[in-house]
Amino acid sequence: MEDRDARRSETDAVGVSFQTLTRMIGASGHADPDRLVAVAARLMPHADQAGVTSIRNDRPAVTVASTGEIPRAVDALQYRTGEGPCLDASLDDEAVISDDLAVERRWPAFAAACVDQFGVRSMLSVRLSLSQQDRAALNFYSPSTHVFTGQDVAEAVILAPFAALVVQQRLHEKDVSHYQEALISSRRIGSAVGILMAQHGVDADDAFGMLRTASQHLNRKLKDLAADVNYTGDLP
């Protein structure tokens, strides 16, 4: 009877997590990553803080969101040492748990330093399923040892699809923003080249060369110098 009640309680807890995340994202399908990790940390009773690690196209890992400075500091240590539960979960494993980093042997360069510098003793990381080029993990941190249970893993797995949705949306927004910035810069440079062609009677290649040379001599970005040419009608 007690086992049945315990299982029912665990099922109810998972259901509450599901409902909470559903309400958080809402009908629009949009949620902020910082809000996501705040909710995730609140739903995980044994977690002190939470964060999300992201790796794009084999570029350096970054912390997309966190509930405080400790997750970011712990993650930065993992990125410097090239090892740790967040990296393992994002790259290979479905879920990674360390019950006591003070005696952890899987990540010798990271584990002891994490305990000494930040006081984090236990970590739980679950992989987020993103696109083929993007990888991520939802991470939980605790100053206590042996705190994360099988129920915590179940909760984290329930949270993972929601976290993946939020992270993927944020990455898409960044891609769109970068594309728009690149398009604006390209148009600005093209317009500046046209102005220099008319001003100096040169062809497009020479006009772009003038702009590039000025950019190097003045130690200014090409797009910023092009904006000046568009405004003043010539190179400074």
UniProtKB/TrEMBL annotation:
Entries under SUPFAM superfamilies matching the protein: CheY-like, GAF domain-like
Ranges where the ANTAR domain occurs: 168-230
Alphabetical keyword list: Kinase, Transcription, Transcription regulation, Transferase
PROSITE patterns xref list: ANTAR
Superkingdom per UniProt: Bacteria
Protein name from the UniProt record: Transcriptional regulator
